[in-house]
């Protein structure tokens, strides 16, 4: 990992990654034992409209998190190595390449967030932060797994007009984003929300504006 040569606008994200505590990111923290180790790539790039994030939409036929927008990522393989060490970085880059066609050689990893937990699927997730130093073409590699790959300007994510609260049929709520013809919610939206907050990029928004999720969520 290296922070050398990063654009200045990423400085707040670097500082946040170095200081944020697990409980400041999510109320769902990994159990002492169990859970499937995994990693996601939170990739920042420089687009036509300024800073942007790379996201993908999972295929609607998948057993877990079907149809949801998400960061590229997946479970650690044995060859990735220690989940407490560099394993999550290798897994995040490998999965991003497999899902989006991204060239890992063009990604500069500059930070790793604390491990978080997704209770519904039992995944223990390490968010890996990257700078898309040398952008490469991306797209859905396998339509059985990935419906589409897209980038979202950070300006759209911070725009209060695009921010809502998602309400699950079971009653719990969480931050969400209406961007690029998609509703980004759940774990992915939670990480984005916290990054915007701790980087100082958050703009006050109407938290009472709710969007109901359907029962398949």
Automatic annotation (TrEMBL):
CDD domains: NUDIX_CoAse_Nudt7. Residues 64-88 are annotated as: Disordered. It holds the Pfam family NUDIX. The keyword Cell cycle does not apply. Residues 34-178 form the Nudix hydrolase domain. Signal peptide: none annotated. One of its GO terms (molecular function) is 8-oxo-7,8-dihydrodeoxyguanosine triphosphate pyrophosphatase activity. InterPro entries: CoAse, NUDIX_hydrolase-like_dom_sf, NUDIX_hydrolase_dom. This is NUDIX hydrolase.
